[in-house]
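Hi,

Apologies if this is the wrong queue. I'm a grad student, and the batch job for AMP-dependent synthetase/ligase domain-containing protein from Clathrus columnatus produced an output file that my downstream script rejects. I'm not sure whether the problem is my script or the file. Here is the sequence I used:
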Amino acid sequence: MFPCIEARLVDAEELGYFVRPRNAKGEHDPNERPCGELHLRGPPGARYPEGSKYTFGPDGWIYTGDIAEMDECGRFKIIDRKKNIVKLSIGESVALEQVESLYAASPIVAQLFVYGDATRDYLVAIVTPVEGFGKELDLDPSASKDGDSSSTQMDLKTATLLALEEQAKFVGLKGYEKIRNIHITNELFTVEGGILTPTLKVRRKDAYKKYKDIIEELYQMPIPSLPSSEPSGRL
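Support response: The file is valid. Your script probably expects a header line. Output copied below for reference.
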């Protein structure tokens, strides 16, 4: 930081970022670095251009909307955005929460977590289908273990991807906003499990931490090819 600029971190509880880091049980975790929304404040009388994208507090702090992590030397590293807007490696920006909400409106989705970052050129997701989805294909998610690589799991994955593709077309998502690969799980996100806030929003940091290895595997796989004849995924 410049000598004339003050900086501070403020809890972004809805995203799971805390200046005094916590574990899934809400207890202080000394092994985690302080994280939170980055606020900046300049010298008295400093002026900023009209139409600035930042929010200004009554005490002179600029609420940047950036989520930063502070290292042991007091340096800040930007790791996320409060509004969960990511710029993919192809240069397109995606509002992850908005994309999630549009996909979540699909009648086959119980829950999902959409992931993307600046090093990737497409989105992936962790998906929990509604109970019984796939029965018309003799596929029942409750009959498969999480992470099962059997042909049943792969068939269910294809059916789910087809339904998500239909939902994407229905709501008018652009190509770069579409989910290209998924992992199916029967495990619901919960407050007790540390993945949901008390208001039932996904804690993105904690969801990524839980599914990090699976997400990396999804990006290592080829993007699945979907059948040209697409059965309806809408109930």
